[in-house]
Design a protein that fits this description.
Elements lengths: L11 E2 H7 L12 E2 L1 E2 L9 E4 L6 H5 L5 E4 L12 E4 L3 H12 L13 E2 L10 E2 L4 E2 L3 E3 L4 E2 L4 E2 L3 E3 L4 E2 L4 E2 L2 E3 L4 E2 L4 E2 L6 E4 L2 E4 L6 E3 L4 E2 L4 E2 L7 E3 L4 E2 L4 E2 L4 E2 L4 E2 L4 E2 L4 E2 L4 E2 L4 E2 L4 E2 L4 E2 L4 E2 L8 E3 L4 E2 H8 L1
Parallel strand pairs: 3-4, 4-5, 5-6, 8-11, 9-12, 10-13, 11-14, 12-15, 13-16, 14-17, 15-18, 16-21, 17-22, 18-23, 21-24, 22-25, 23-26, 24-27, 25-28, 26-29, 27-30, 28-31, 29-32, 30-33, 31-34, 32-35, 34-36
Antiparallel strand pairs: 1-2, 7-9, 19-20, 36-37
């Protein structure tokens, strides 16, 4: 369920696909149709994927993709069954191919399909404030509330017993049951994904969604970006304080408590029962284990193992931090 809301324009014949983005000098392959582009882990036969960092060597070794965009120095990490497409800039090429499969995922202009909720089928099913707008392909469950000036843009599923505050914007998001989204949140917009290519920044299509699981709360003024290649996920019974930013592809586990103004860079994974103090920062592509406590104002730049308490910048074991402070 990586991209339930974006229309896939595939399949494409592999050689024509590569030629369409200017890869005319690349190796030729046996004619084969490619149906989708996915990450290393979720790819299956007739998919194309990408591999740009040794950090993902385990996923590369086990990928089922038929083709992989990569570099010469990473080719030995991929299985023999996967055809390698060697390029200089893996991420730029991946962005161009993703745009061909999902052209509607690049821009996030305002939703022109929205209607006043009083003119939709939800006018008698939802308790709502003034100036509430609803877009196409929106589903809202039982016993939900939506505050003043909120916009539920296209491609949103809201479960039962949910409370959406005032001045909230939501799109490309799946909200499960018993969830509170407090005032001023923006959820499901595209992430900060682009790559420098000579004199131009190339925007990366964001084809994932945001998934917020049962019994969670999102604090005022928080922003949650939808996933790029995978989904951004908030676990069950996880509470976010005010003004928290969660970038694309971040996965936060169950029963977590995140204090105000914490920032998560893209593609980091946070385990279950994690507590993070205010104004801490989590760098991208990290793995934070279960039962972790991170002190306020800390800067996490490395993976953290289970059952650990850390603090400081760079974040280190709490006992070591206290000892060094004395």
């Amino acid at each position: 369920m990586t991209n339930p809301f974006f229309l896939n324009k595939g399949p494409f014949e592999i050689n024509k696909l590569l030629k369409s983005i200017g890869l005319t000098n690349i190796q030729k392959f046996k004619s084969e149709k490619i149906y989708n582009i996915k990450d290393l882990s979720s790819s299956t036969k007739n998919d194309i994927t990408f591999f740009h960092s040794k950090k993902y060597e385990n996923q590369a070794l086990n990928t089922k993709a038929s083709f992989c965009i990569t570099t010469q120095n990473l080719k030995n990490y991929l299985p023999k069954s996967c055809n390698k497409i060697f390029v200089d800039n893996v991420l730029v090429v991946t962005a161009k191919i993703t745009k061909i499969f999902y052209p509607d995922s690049v821009n996030d202009d305002f939703d022109t399909t929205v209607k006043d909720i009083s003119k939709t089928s939800y006018k008698k099913k939802v308790k709502f404030g003034k100036n509430v707008l609803i877009g196409k392909n929106v589903k809202i469950g039982k016993s939900c509330l939506i505050g003043h000036n909120s916009i539920i843009e296209k491609n949103v599923i809201i479960g039962n017993n949910c409370s959406i505050g005032s001045n909230v914007i939501i799109r490309n998001t799946i909200i499960k049951n018993n969830i509170s989204i407090l005032d001023g949140c923006v959820i499901g917009k595209k992430g900060f994904g682009f790559f420098s290519n000579k004199d131009k920044n190339y925007r990366y299509p964001q084809i994932g969604v945001v998934i917020i699981n049962d019994n969670s709360e999102i604090g005022c003024g928080s922003t949650i970006d939808r996933g790029s290649m995978s989904n951004t996920i908030i676990g069950k019974n996880t509470f976010l304080d005010n003004q928290i930013h969660i970038a694309h592809n971040v996965k936060i586990g169950d029963n977590c408590i995140i204090a105000g103004q914490v920032g998560f860079a893209g593609s980091s994974t946070i385990g279950n029962h994690v507590m993070i103090g205010g104004q801490a920062g989590i760098s991208g592509h990290l793995k934070i284990g279960n039962n972790i406590q991170i002190g306020g104002g800390s800067g996490v730049i490395r993976d953290i193992k289970d059952n650990t308490k850390v603090m400081g910048y760079p974040a280190k074991d709490l006992k070591k931090f206290i000892k060094e402070m004395n």
